[in-house]
Write a structure and sequence with these properties.
By secondary structure, the chain is mainly α. The protein is about 75% helix and about 0% strand.
Length: about 375
């Protein structure tokens, strides 16, 4: 009998460490790799049950593919498998990103590196646009949601914080699609803690590891949809509100995060290191991922029933379209910062063409291509 057969936990650790090392390409690619490992190859569950779990991850905050690892680990080895799977999937990305953060802080201003970063930034815009397109297709279910999405975009340009705009969209959806259709008979009390949560993290400007932890904990607790929505939250919290990062530094963090496998949210490690060194990286990393473990652990038994509630369904639909609206507003702002000359425009347009015309192109290749093109345009 093999070690895998003797120990389900060992098998979970082996599978998700492997995926953590090779899973490039974003959440959709991660989930495809998981399906191959746990359904086709190892038969931990049926394909239908796997699809049900994929749907369930869209109903709770947090990075979808990371939460899917936790669901799969739970199926194989119970609650211990949940935590082992999540940790093993996250850990390689955190280590790689931490190493890149150290190199960036030490050598990021060296001229030979700057041309690569110059080309990566427009390429990242193309990746985010692709995510917006895919998420938008899924989120825009009717004209009412379109209005909510447009309102979120306008609110963002008027200076409303990203978290407030997202939660505001959720409340509008809860009332519009839920309470109005049920005559107000369903209780709104279960959503009050979510609305009050944001008030716990008000305006301390000093940079401390506790503050870093709380900021990333808040983001991890309200982050619906793709990890790319993280760009919007970080821009609002760390750039606009606190001024701990510049927009260029944020783009550098997102861009370098694309070089690592595993969850996009490992970008938090990079940013934490930029702001406050090793301890800052640890605080940000724990903060961003901690909510996902507990959401999956506590809510998985009831999450499949949420869609039966008009209130919950309306809230979640509006939150999803609001997240897309925030991403659009942030992408426009980032584009103004990045697309400052014809070279940047050329890299961005080339990246968009490749992203939208070549099916299943890995985001890593878009980033590498942008880096090489940026180097060539600046150096020759």
């Amino acid at each position: 009998m093999s070690n895998d057969q003797k120990s389900p936990l060992f098998e979970v650790a082996k599978v998700f460490t492997k995926l953590g090392l090779i899973a490039f390409g974003g959440p959709a690619a991660h989930i495809a790799m998981m399906e191959e490992e746990v359904v086709t190859k190892r038969k931990w569950m049926t394909r239908q049950h796997f699809l049900d779990l994929v749907g369930a991850t869209n109903l709770i905050p947090g990075p979808n593919s990371t939460e899917m690892t936790m669901h799969c680990g739970h199926e194989r080895a119970g609650w211990r498998g949940l935590f082992v799977a999540g940790f093993c999937f996250i850990f390689p990305a955190v280590v790689f990103t931490g190493m890149l953060a150290w190199l960036y802080v030490q050598y990021g201003k060296v001229p030979t590196i700057e041309p690569f970063l110059y080309g990566i930034k427009p390429a990242v815009l193309a990746i985010i646009l692709s995510a917006i397109y895919k998420l938008g297709q899924k989120a825009l279910k009717n004209w009412q949601l379109g209005i909510i999405g447009l309102a979120v975009i306008v609110a963002s340009f008027l200076g409303v914080s990203e978290v407030a705009a997202i939660l505001g969209a959720g409340v509008v959806g809860l009332i519009w699609f839920g309470a109005m259709q049920t005559g107000g008979n369903q209780s709104l009390k279960s959503f009050i803690p979510i609305l009050l949560f944001n008030q716990l993290f008000t305006a301390v400007q000093d940079i401390t590891n506790t503050k870093l932890f709380l900021i990333f904990l808040k983001i991890g607790a309200v982050l619906f949809g793709s990890g790319y929505v993280l760009v919007a939250y970080l821009d609002g919290e760390l750039v606009d509100k606190l001024g701990w990062l510049t927009k260029q530094e944020l783009l550098d963090a997102i861009a370098i995060g694309q070089f690592t496998p595993g969850p996009v949210l490992s970008t938090a490690t990079f940013i934490g290191f930029q702001i406050n060194g090793v301890l800052g990286a640890i605080a940000a990393t724990i903060g961003i991922f901690l909510p996902s473990f507990f959401f999956v652990w506590l809510l998985n038994p009831i999450v499949s029933k949420l869609r039966q509630s008009l209130l919950a369904a309306g809230f979640l639909d509006a939150v999803n379209i609001g997240a897309v609206g925030i991403m659009i507003a942030v992408t426009i702002n980032l584009g103004q910062e990045i697309l400052v000359d014809w070279k940047a425009w050329l890299i961005a347009l080339a990246s968009v063409v490749v992203t939208f015309t070549i099916k299943k192109v890995n985001a890593l290749w878009i980033v590498i291509g942008g880096a090489i093109l940026g180097y060539l345009l600046l150096m020759f």
